[in-house]
Amino acid sequence: MRIMIDSNIFISALLFPNSTPSKLVEKVLDEYHLVLCSQIIDELHEVFNRKFKEKTSELEKFLSKLSYELIYTPQEFDKQEYPDIRDNKDLPILVSAIIGDVDYLITGDKDFFEIKLEKPEIVSAKKFLKNY
What we know:
- It is built from 7 helices and 5 strands, in the order E-H-H-E-H-H-E-H-E-H-E-H.
- By secondary structure, the chain is α/β, with parallel strands linked by helices.
- The relative contact order is 0.21.
- The model has no long low-confidence stretch (mean pLDDT about 95).
């Protein structure tokens, strides 16, 4: 199974090592094929540089040890070809998940849960852990 994990899950996992997001990341790394997009990695760097500057080295260590397939987020795409999402900043991640043919997009961002798609299925960390 191909799984994309949104940046908000990784941030929570890194900041709270015993949390549900942390358990989810561990399970995905152990049992599934992790797919990340360049937009998620850029977001991780941006958030850590802005909010958690003292933990940036932890992020770098984490990313350097992480095994994943990288999908480059397209800089330009026709928005009409993709589902509407309330926050346009989230659209590049959705586009990357669709292009990357992932089975699940795991996120804590409620805007994604409004989207009706067959694939990828969009789920929370808690729901994914409960069902898989």
